[in-house]
Amino acid sequence: MAEALLAGLLQSGAVKSSNIWATDVSQDRLNFLKKKYQVYIGTDNTEAVKWATVIILAVKPQVLPHVLSQVKKGLKRTQLVISIAAGVPLSKIIGGLSSSASVIRAMPNTPCLVQQGATALTTGKTVTQDQLQMAEAIFEASGKVVVVEETLMDAVTGLSGSGPAYVYVMIEALADGGVRMGLPRHIAQTLATQTVLGTANLVSVSGEHPGLLKDRVTSPGGTTIAGLHELEKGGVRAIFMTAVEAATKRSQELGS
Ligand SMILES: NC(=O)c1ccc[n+]([C@@H]2O[C@H](COP(=O)([O-])OP(=O)(O)OC[C@H]3O[C@@H](n4cnc5c(N)ncnc54)[C@H](OP(=O)(O)O)[C@@H]3O)[C@@H](O)[C@H]2O)c1
Questions:
Q1: How many CA atoms lie within 13 A of 187 on its CB side?
Q2: Closest atom of ligand 1 to CA, residue 45
Q3: Reported pTM
Q4: Is 156 within the bounds of a domain?
Q5: Are residues 140 and 77 in the same domain?
């Protein structure tokens, strides 16, 4: 995830590589990042923090307490800390730093890897408007950004966090349908993938309600309404809704 954000930032031109310092425990990984992105590298988190305006924590949740203790040693009041550790609440991050620390919690998703991510941000009390704007700019370099209350972060996890897996299944199933009807696998997969991609783009660019767009491609007695009828018989809407609900509840369970 850190590399995806890094690549997005550099591609967007929002930040120069000479203004980024990447840390990791693996020297091989750091050498790779330096070669590919020409960023500063180092293994010392405390040292990197002293130098930074924004500190992004992109380690696994179980590693976070250790990294927070290192960050805390170099942290100044004016700096912004952004954590992308899934399920770790603001209170825990602030608790590991200081009560005056400015902290934003972010929930990005894997399409950030191709700069098409969906990220939700939630802010701690001491975060300024400028700092929030900075965080929005960072994640906008890798896709779309929304700001929500922290209580909604589990729902974000259930929708956009787990969502890519639902869509993978949808693409695979559509392709299987094509294969069942005689299309070669590679052609079926190309058509299924491009259909999902193009349709999502159309919804996003037009800003129109998906129901309206659906009605426009559904002619009376035609092929599309025949297919839609089968989806409705299978309870497709309820299934997607309960999938989001189940993933949200699981996220709540894991966080409690
Ligand atoms: N992947 C997703 O879709 C996604 C979505 C939303 C949120 N997140 C969150 O993003 C965070 C990172 O996920 P990821 O999938 O990118 O994990 P990851 O591939 O394991 O990346 C974490 C990186 O941090 C390095 N690291 C470990 N200890 C460190 C330390 N003390 N100081 C500096 N770097 C250290 C790791 O090195 P080693 O590999 O050598 O240990 C690894 O390169 C997680 O908290 C996850 O919950 C991920």
A1: 7
A2: 32
A3: 0.93
A4: no
A5: yes
